[in-house]
Specification:
This protein is of the alpha/beta class and about 210 residues long. Helices cover about 40% and strands about 15% of the residues. The protein has a five-stranded parallel sheet, sandwiched between helices. The longest helix is centred in the C-terminal third of the chain and has 23 residues.
């Protein structure tokens, strides 16, 4: 049973403006952990902003880039963009460097025409107070950037990189609940910045994209 106010009504969802889907693979941040309600997760915000269906594969604490899982979700029909954002779970344990290249190979094999966006991790306060961690994060960020650059130099112009450390700007600590997971303000900021990137790589020619 669903209770609604008198004279109100429930109707089916309108058809999405865009016919193709966006697939997003990542961590608890992708899942929407710490948003005050489901509709404020950045994937749901972007679904409304862009009028396109988003398929959210966010695995809290378990985004390890397993080839078997990526093989399954990269075969989903009618997808135009595959977003990868799992450094938060797989960076410091070494799994990111062991799995990312293979992941990109699987996605490209299963879907030669899909665009792929790799996003490095958003900034944590711990990165600023721990010099060793700061160096580790820089190394992981450059690993992802360089991998994308190498693929583009080899001819794959449908793969892109977004530096997640720049998404929140100088006041990044204001956008999370625990210096890790975005709050509602953080999800809105993430959505707005990611919208700019998506529009850039999907609405303009390849020569317009320089963020790598």
């Amino acid at each position: 049973w669903i209770g609604i106010e008198k004279d109100n009504f429930i109707k089916p969802h309108n058809t999405f403006k865009e016919k193709e889907r966006i697939i997003c693979y990542g961590t608890s941040i992708t899942q929407g952990g710490c948003a005050s309600r489901p509709g404020l997760n950045y994937t749901n915000l972007l679904s409304r902003m862009l009028e396109v269906e988003w398929l959210n594969y966010g695995f809290s604490g378990n985004a390890f880039g397993e080839a078997e899982l990526i093989d399954v979700i990269s075969k989903i029909n009618n997808a135009s963009l595959f977003i990868i954002d799992y450094e938060a779970n797989s960076g410091t344990n070494g799994k990111l460097k062991l799995t990312l290249e293979k992941m990109l190979e699987i996605i490209r094999k299963n879907n030669p025409k899909i665009k792929i966006l790799v996003i490095s991790r958003i900034p944590y306060l711990f990165d600023e107070i721990d010099e060793d961690m700061k160096r580790v994060r820089k190394d992981l960020r450059e690993f992802q950037r360089n991998l994308v650059n190498n693929l583009r130099e080899k001819g794959d112009n449908l793969v892109y990189f977004l530096d997640g450390s720049k998404i929140f700007g100088k006041n990044y600590h204001e956008f999370t609940v625990d210096t890790v997971h975005p709050n509602d303000l953080g999800f809105m900021k993430f959505a707005k910045e990611l919208k700019k990137e998506i529009n850039l790589i999907t609405k303009t020619g390849e020569e317009q994209w320089t963020n790598y």
